[in-house]
Design a protein that fits this description.
Elements (H helix, E strand, L loop, with lengths): L12 E4 L5 E4 L2 H17 L7 H26 L13 H5 L8 H10 L7 H20 L5 H21 L8 H38 L9 E3 L6 E6 L2 E4 L4 E4 H8 L20 E2 L12 E2 L11 E3 L6 E3 L13 H12 L1
Antiparallel strand pairs: 1-2, 3-4, 4-5, 5-6, 7-8, 9-10
The structure holds zinc ion (ZN) (3 copies).
């Protein structure tokens, strides 16, 4: 897909303002962004959309919308910020739109760090996921489940609608221009808002149905699925099944996706219960209790009950601490010390 151009010259959108005069609005990046959003909700409508082809265009257009809208806001801060390397930016290349622009993830970083925008972790990570899904889609075709993509897209759509409402994306306008702009954009934005509501209510209806059936009484075994971001992944002996996606997860899939380090050989902590290196920290359970989870023995240790072994640093229960010194030693370290002392 060609890079979205952010600088003039470009096409304009003709609108009639309140005085009946034809006004030409010259900020197509934002119109383009909104136009992409209209296409996204069309492709994702639960009743009419949702085919693999729909999902493909929904992801491509959602990413394009995010890119133009985030960058339009960056340009309002300073035009050089949309360059991959602002240090080499020249106004001439900006006006000619002949430059390498920054990635969406960098745009989010700059909006947070330089423009001081309060973009939440959740929104930033949804935008990053979207960019990754777009890239995977372009190189390998659709590798994600359609339902999961739909649920995730709803998060990004929701963010972009708030972003459009809260952020100054277009240059300062005269009163007439302001009105004409609002008039032109509002109809499209209404369409997007209705579309997002339909997608969100589809997600809600589906989750409600699942809560009454597959997920009933399983809250203490159910976690948020990182694929669809719904509390619908029920853990079992083999790993788990997300009923929203629906996807089966093997225990090693869970470890890889929820791992606490980037070290693929040691994705989990050593479990104090079974000693396997399969203890995961970052699982969020549907019952709201903050615990860790071991994919081997399926124990859910409570963080407050765990200290770390003074010998090797692994998680080990506080209640085994030495009554006088307060030292915690795991069984292996106790064994090792005994051997060292007797030799
Ligand atoms: Zn899922
Ligand atoms: Zn274990
Ligand atoms: Zn130890």
């Amino acid at each position: 897909m060609p890079e979205e151009k952010l600088a003039p010259p470009r096409a304009t959108k003709n609108v009639r303002n309140s005085l009946g005069l034809e006004a030409q609005l010259d900020f197509p990046p934002v119109f383009n962004g909104i136009d992409y959003l209209v296409s996204v909700v069309d492709h994702l409508q639960p009743d009419t959309g949702g085919t693999p082809r729909d999902i493909k265009y929904a992801v491509l257009h959602l990413q394009a919308a995010a890119e133009v809208l985030l960058k339009a806001r960056l340009v309002r801060e300073h035009w050089s910020l949309v360059f991959r390397d602002p240090g080499t930016a020249t106004h001439k290349s900006f006006l000619q739109a002949s430059f390498e622009s920054c990635t969406t993830t960098t745009a989010v970083q700059r909006l947070r760090n330089i423009a001081g925008l309060a973009i939440s972790e959740k929104d930033a990570s949804a935008l990053k996921d979207l960019a990754e899904t777009r890239n995977a889609l372009q190189h390998y075709g659709l590798t994600h489940n359609a339902r999961a993509v739909e649920a995730r897209a709803a998060t990004v759509l929701d963010f972009l609608l708030r972003f459009l409402a809260e952020e100054p994306l277009v240059p300062a306008l005269s009163e007439d221009e302001e009105e004409a702009w609002a008039h032109a954009a509002e109809a499209d934005l209404d369409k997007v808002r209705d579309g997002v509501l339909a997608i969100q209510s589809f997600v809600t209806r589906r989750m409600n149905r699942l809560r009454g059936n597959e997920l009933k009484g399983a809250e203490d075994r159910t976690v948020y699925c990182l694929e669809c971001q719904q509390p619908a992944l029920v853990l079992d002996d083999h790993g788990g099944v997300c009923h929203f996606c629906p996807i089966e997860w093997s225990a090693s899939d869970l470890l890889t996706v929820y791992r606490f380090t980037d070290d693929r050989d040691a994705p989990g902590h050593d479990c104090p219960n079974c000693s396997c290196p399969t203890l995961i920290e970052r699982m969020s359970f549907a019952d709201g209790k903050e615990t860790l989870y071991c994919t081997s023995c399926r124990a859910r240790p409570v963080p407050a009950d765990l200290g770390s072994c003074n010998g090797c640093g692994r998680y080990w229960p506080w209640d085994t601490a030495h009554p006088d010194t307060g030292q915690i030693l795991c069984l292996e370290c106790q064994e090792r010390i005994r051997r060292e002392e007797s030799s």
